[in-house]
From TrEMBL:
First and last residues of every PPR repeat: 419-453
Entry keyword Repeat: yes
Family: Belongs to the PPR family. P subfamily.
Cited PANTHER family: BNAC05G43320D PROTEIN, OS07G0495300 PROTEIN
Entry keyword set: Repeat
Protein name as it appears in the record: At1g68980-like TPR repeats domain-containing protein
Top-level lineage group: Eukaryota
Annotated InterPro entries: At1g68980-like_TPR, PPR_rpt, TPR-like_helical_dom_sf
Ranges of residues in domain At1g68980-like TPR repeats: 39-160
Pfam families on file: PPR, TPR_At1g68980
Length: 642
C-alpha cells in the first residue's frame, strides 16, 4: 500500500508540474483526504485531464493507473479513446489503436462501438490504413456493427493508396466470409454495392486485376446487386485479365441503354474493343464497331427488366455463380478513378464513335488478313465516303497503294464511287513508286467512269494526319504484342475447365501452354490454376505450381504480381507448408510488395492455432521436423504470436 501511495504522489507531482509549465489552465490536484483510495485519486486525475483535453497528462496518469490497477472502467476507457481520436497527431492515434485492441483483448466490454467508430474514422482520414484495418478487423471479430455509411467513408479513404487498397480488399473478403457464416443472424449487415465499387475501382487503378476478379465472384456469392458503376469497373477487370467471354456477357446484359447513359458505358465498349484486339480478332472487333456506331439509333430502347442475372464464368456450368446487375442504377460516391479517357471509343454530341486508334488497328488487321472487301463495307457503314477517303489517304501515305486501290474498287462496285481527288492521290502514289502498270489500270478505270484527270491540278492533302501516324505505329509494332493471342484463347479454356472442376482437362491445357516454345504462362494462367487447386483443397499441387512460377520468373518470362503471391501465401498457410510461406513472403519483401501480416495471422489461427507452440527444434526427431519447427516459429514471430 505504501508503494502504491508513493507512486500516486509521484504521479500527482509530475502531472501538476507539467501542467504549470505547458498549460494555460493547469489541472489543480483534487483536495482528497489521504484516507481516500489511491485508485480514486488517479481516476480523478485522469478524468480531469481528459475533461480539459490534456492528452500528455492523461497518458502519464493512465500508465500509472494501469500499472497499479489495470484498465479503468468502460466509461473512462471510452472517454480516453475518444479524446485520443480527436488528436491530429498520428502518434496519439497509433497509441489509441494499440490501447483499444489491447483493452478489448482483455475485456470485450471495455471499449464500446461508438468510441471505436470515432477512432476508426480518425485513422482513415489520417491515411493510417493499417491501423484503420486493424480496428475494422477487431470490430468484426468482437461482433461490433459498422454501419454502411461509416464503412463507405473508411474504405473511401483507405483505397486512395496502394497499401490501403490491399488492406481494404482483404478486409472485404474477410467481412463477406463472416457474413456468409452468420447471414441467418439479422444483426449482420451485408456489404453494399458502394463499398464493392470503391474497392474494385482501386484494384483497377493499382493493377490488382486478379484480386478484382476474386471480388467480382465474391459479389455474386453474397448477392450484392451490381449497379452501372459496377458494370464498368467489372469490364475493366475483365479487360486486364483478357476475359473476352465475360465482357461480351456484360455487354449483352446492359442491352441498349438510354442515350443519357451512353457516355457512362463508353468505357465498357472501349474495354470490349481492347480485348478483341488482344485476341487478334479483327472481324469480331469490326462487329463491335458497327454496334457502337448504331447505338445512336437504338439508344431510345430501354431494358424492360431493371435487374438482370448474368453468369460469372461459363453459363454451361450448372453450379456456376450468378450476379444480379441493375445497369440503369448509378449510385453516388460509388466509384473512384476508373473514368479515364477511353482509347478506342469516342463520345460527342450524345453519340458514341470510334477513334483513329481503332481505325488504324482495323485497317492493319484487315490488310494483314487480306480481307479488304470487309474493311470497305465496315468503313462505309461507319463513316461513309469521308471515312473511306481518310483510310485511302493513310494507305497511300504508308505505301499500301494496292490496298488503297482495292478500297476504291470496292466502293465503286457498291455504287458509292469516290471523288476524283481520291483517285488522283492513288494515281500519284503509283507514279512516285514507279508502278506504271498499276497506274495505267487506274487511268483506264477513271476514264471509263468519266473522271478526267489533269496533272496540272494540285492534289489536296488529307486533314486526318493522326490516322496516318497511328497506322505507321501499328505497322512498326507488327507482331510484337506482349501476350500472343493464342495464349488468351488457352487461358479462356483453362478458366472454363478450372471453374468446372475439370482438373484433368485443366492440367492438359496448362501443360499445352508450357510445351509451346513461343508462349509462356501468364499470371492469369497461374492464378486460375491455383484458384482451382485451392477450391479442391489440393495444396500440394500448389507447391508444384509455385515451382513453375519460380522457373518462369528466373527465365524472365513472367513478372509476378502482389495479388498472385498473396494468394500463394494464404494457400500455403492453409496447407501447412510453412517453408513455402516464408519463401513467398521473402520474395514479396525483395520486390517491395506489402505483406498483410494481420491477415496471415488470422488465416494461421483458423487452422494451426497451437501448432508447435511449445515444441522446440531440439525436440524434433528428424532434420525435416526440426526445419518445420523452425519455419513455424519464424512465422509465428513474424505475425506476433508468442
Amino acid at each position: 500500500m505504501l508503494r502504491k501511495r508513493n507512486l500516486v504522489i509521484e504521479s500527482i507531482r509530475r502531472i501538476s508540474s507539467k501542467s504549470s509549465l505547458f498549460c494555460t489552465t493547469s489541472v489543480q490536484p483534487a483536495r482528497l483526504s489521504w484516507e481516500a483510495s489511491s485508485q480514486v485519486i488517479l481516476k480523478k486525475k485522469l478524468e480531469t485531464a481528459l475533461k480539459h483535453h490534456h492528452i500528455d497528462d492523461a497518458w502519464d496518469v493512465f500508465k500509472d493507473y494501469k500499472r497499479l490497477y489495470g484498465f479503468p472502467d468502460s466509461s473512462t476507457m471510452n472517454r480516453f479513446v475518444t479524446v485520443l481520436s480527436y488528436s491530429s497527431d498520428p502518434a496519439w492515434l497509433c497509441k489509441a489503436d494499440d490501447l483499444s485492441r489491447l483493452a478489448l483483448k482483455q475485456n470485450s466490454g471495455l471499449v464500446n462501438s461508438d468510441a471505436l467508430t470515432k477512432l476508426l474514422l480518425s485513422l482513415a482520414r489520417a491515411q493510417m490504413s493499417e491501423s484503420a484495418c486493424n480496428i475494422l478487423r477487431t470490430m468484426l471479430e468482437k461482433g461490433f456493427v459498422v454501419t454502411s455509411d461509416v464503412l463507405r467513408l473508411v474504405v473511401m479513404h483507405m483505397v486512395k493508396t496502394e497499401v490501403g487498397t490491399c488492406l481494404a480488399s482483404n478486409y472485404l473478403v474477410q467481412f463477406c466470409n463472416r457474413f456468409m457464416e452468420l447471414k441467418r443472424n439479422s444483426n449482420v449487415i451485408k456489404p453494399d454495392t458502394v463499398v464493392f465499387n470503391l474497392v474494385l475501382g482501386s484494384c483497377v487503378r493499382f493493377g490488382f486485376s486478379l484480386k478484382g476478379q476474386e471480388l467480382i465472384e465474391l459479389m455474386a456469392r453474397v448477392d450484392v446487386v451490381a449497379d452501372g458503376h459496377s458494370v464498368v469497373i467489372m469490364s475493366c477487370v475483365y479487360e486486364m485479365n483478357g476475359m473476352r467471354d465475360e465482357l461480351k456477357k456484360l455487354k449483352e446484359g446492359i442491352g441498349r441503354v438510354p442515350s443519357q447513359l451512353l457516355c457512362h458505358y463508353r468505357r465498357l465498349y472501349d474495354n470490349l474493343l481492347s480485348v478483341e484486339f488482344k485476341f487478334d480478332d479483327v472481324c469480331s472487333a469490326g462487329r463491335v464497331v458497327l454496334d457502337i456506331c448504331k447505338s445512336k439509333d437504338l439508344s431510345s430502347v430501354q431494358n424492360l427488366e431493371k435487374v438482370m442475372v448474368l453468369p460469372v464464368g461459363s453459363h454451361h456450368i450448372k453450379s456456376g455463380l450468378r450476379i444480379r446487375i441493375s445497369p440503369e442504377l448509378l449510385q453516388r460516391d460509388s466509384s473512384l478513378g476508373v473514368d479515364s479517357e477511353a482509347t478506342f471509343v469516342s463520345y460527342a454530341d450524345s453519340k458514341l464513335g470510334v477513334t483513329n486508334k481503332t481505325l488504324a488497328k482495323l485497317v492493319y488487321g484487315y490488310k494483314r488478313r487480306e480481307n479488304l472487301p470487309e474493311l470497305s463495307k465496315l468503313l462505309f457503314s461507319v463513316g461513309g465516303t469521308k471515312l473511306c477517303a481518310d483510310v485511302i489517304d493513310a494507305c497511300v501515305a504508308v505505301g499500301w497503294l494496292e490496298a488503297a486501290h482495292d478500297v476504291l474498287d470496292d466502293m465503286d462496285s457498291a455504287g458509292n464511287p469516290m471523288d476524283l481527288v481520291i483517285y488522283r492521290k492513288v494515281l500519284s502514289g503509283y507514279y512516285k513508286s514507279k508502278m506504271v502498270r498499276n497506274a495505267e489500270v487506274l487511268v483506264r478505270q477513271m476514264t471509263k467512269a468519266g473522271l478526267v484527270t489533269d496533272h496540272s491540278d494540285e492534289i489536296k492533302d488529307c486533314e486526318n494526319t493522326e490516322l496516318r501516324a497511328l497506322l505507321v505505329q501499328e505497322i512498326n509494332a507488327g507482331e510484337q504484342t506482349k501476350v500472343p493471342s493464342m495464349l488468351y484463347e488457352l487461358n479462356t479454356s483453362l478458366y472454363y475447365f478450372c471453374k468446372a472442376k475439370m482438373q484433368g482437362d485443366a492440367v492438359t491445357t496448362y501443360r499445352k501452354i508450357q510445351k509451346m516454345k513461343t508462349i509462356s504462362p501468364t499470371v492469369q494462367s497461374f492464378w486460375i490454376l491455383v484458384d482451382m487447386y485451392s477450391s479442391l483443397g489440393m495444396y500440394r499441387e500448389i507447391t508444384v505450381t509455385w515451382g513453375d512460377i519460380k522457373r518462369n520468373v528466373a527465365s524472365r518470362d513472367l513478372e509476378v504480381t502482389q495479388d498472385l503471391l498473396e494468394k500463394l501465401v494464404v494457400n500455403f498457410l492453409r496447407g501447412g507448408y510453412f517453408e513455402r510461406v516464408m519463401e513467398v513472403i521473402s520474395c514479396m519483401k525483395e520486390k517491395g510488395m506489402y505483406n498483410d501480416v494481420a491477415m496471415y495471422k488470422i488465416e494461421y489461427l483458423k487452422v494451426h492455432k497451437n501448432l508447435y507452440r511449445t515444441l522446440k527444434a531440439a525436440d524434433a526427431v528428424t532434420e525435416a521436423q526440426a526445419q518445420r519447427v523452425a519455419h513455424v516459429r519464424a512465422f509465428r514471430k513474424l505475425v506476433g504470436i508468442i
